[in-house]
Structures are given as structure tokens and as C-alpha cells.
Amino acid sequence: MIGVMVVSHEPLGTALIHCTRHIYGRLPVQLAALDVIPDEDPDQAYSAAIELLARINDGSGVIVLTDLFGATPSRIAARLAQPHKVVVLAGVNLPMLVKVLNNRRMPVEELVDTLLSSAQGAILQIKPEAGEGNENGSR
Known about the structure:
The chain is of the alpha/beta class and 139 residues long. The protein has one domain: Phosphotransferase system, mannose-type IIA component (Rossmann fold, 3-Layer(aba) Sandwich), CATH 3.40.50.510. The protein has 5 helices and 4 strands, in the order βαβαβαβαα. Strands 2-1-3-4 form a 4-stranded parallel beta sheet, with helices on both faces. It is globular, with a radius of gyration of 17 Å. The model has no long low-confidence stretch (mean pLDDT 93).
């Protein structure tokens, strides 16, 4: 089964994986977070990421999700990438994480395609239903 790691600014990764406990009733297996703290040495964070990666990878591959493309966590995550084995995607959010967890028995490349094609549909505007008032409560 594909492992999943979130590498992000502290405390986002841990918060996201804790949200999965609410959704699934328990913490999913082969899931880890690396929260990069301010002023952390990137090489030390990378070493910690390598250790986490080894713990969650059963040989099926790993998808690494990171938050802000170009920031320190994403640069650390990018160093983990290995063709057909470890794929790194930026823009992590809870719908993306749930999509990964629900589909991680498919091949890594197929899962990445699924994630990329569904990413645009994960951001939605929620409009008031007809007859509902605005945020001030008026109608």
C-alpha cells in the first residue's frame, strides 16, 4: 500500500493527519507528518524526512504532500522525489489527503493522475441556498 507523508510548515501536517482520525475513526497506517519549524536546519529536517519515509514505505511507493511550493518544506520534500517510487505534490489540503488515503492501493502513477485531475474540483464556492439571508442574518 502506498505510504503518505505530509511535509509542511508547523503544525499543518500533524493537524491534517489528526483530521484523518476524525474521518476514519483511527489514524491510518503508513501515514506520517513532518512539521518544519521556523529556523530549523533544512538538512536536519531532510534527515528526519528520510527516516519517516523508510518507516512508511513498504515498497509500494510513497506520495509526499507539501504545502507551499518553493518554501522550505517543499524544497525538503523535493529532495525525497524518486521516479516511480516517491512522488511529491504541492498544495496539500484535507480533500487531497483523503483522496490519497482512499485510493492508495492503485499504482503510484495512476494515483498521481487521479489526484491532479481531481484537485481543481476540490475548491468550491459555497453559496447560500435560495431564501437564506446574508451573513448578517437579514433576508
